[in-house]
Amino acid sequence: MACKRGALIVLEGVDKAGKTTQCQKLVQALRRKGHPAEMMRFPDRTTTIGKMISAYLENQSELSGQTVHLLFSANRWELVPLIKKKLEQGTTLVVDRYAFSGVAFTSAKPGFSLHWCKQPDVGLPKPDLVLFLQLSPAEAALRGHFGMERYEKSSFQCAVQQQFKHLMEDETVNWKVIDASMNVEDVHKDITEHSLNAINIAQNLPLGELWQ
Ligand code: FDM
Q: What's a single GO CC term here (predicted)?
């Protein structure tokens, strides 16, 4: 008998919300409970496309908004065969950022519609659960200064937060909003509960396609 598939779980949120820490803690907790789990992150800066994205983010290269948007999307598409293989083998994937960051960040730039931004990612493996770590810009600012990368400015992050709000109106995606202002352990507990539930449901369902 074929094994039950793993779940595709995505963590999204603005900078400083604690996504990376929570992804790592979730993978460890799932493994302890006997669920094979692995972490992935986007952008994946290790591939050729990822290196172009990384140079852009570090202000070492200039690309048009359209170009970098398509590179971010291509960086996801190049990993789709691996994502599908892992899920089919029964491994749950915990993903730090996905197409939602792609759309929220580009559509926060002047002249980019949500509709245009979504198109390149239509048909990607659809997450079984998207956890949005909610943190107000004021609380994010209390967690320290932004780094030196291109998008790490509070005015831009506010615009990104607005775009995430629009994306969360889409009920075809299983969004769960998590209050990221709680302490690390309470956030972790919430996230783990939602994830275990999603793993249970996903094992009996086929993997969906995003935004179609
Ligand atoms: N980002 C991330 C995008 O603009 N589009 C995308 O598709 C993705 C996945 O890249 F500012 C932005 C979000 C962030 C930057 O992300 C790098 P990390 O998580 O800081 O590496």
A: mitochondrion
State the virtual CA torsion across 185, 179, 155, 18 in degrees, nearest 10.
Answer: 20
Indicate the helix (H) or strand (E) that contains 73: helix 65-77
Mutate to test the pocket of ligand 1, among 75, 83, 105, 210 (most ligand atoms within 8 A of CB): 105
The residues spanned by each domain of the chain are 8-206
48-103 confidence digits (pLDDT tens) = 999 999 999 999 999 999 999 999 999 999 999 999 999 999 999 999 999 999 99
Please state which architecture CATH assigns to domain 8-206: 3-Layer(aba) Sandwich (3.40)
Which atom of ligand 1 is least distant from the CA of 97?
9
- Report the nearest atom of ligand 1 relative to the CA of 41: 19
The question of ipTM being above 0.95 is answered as yes
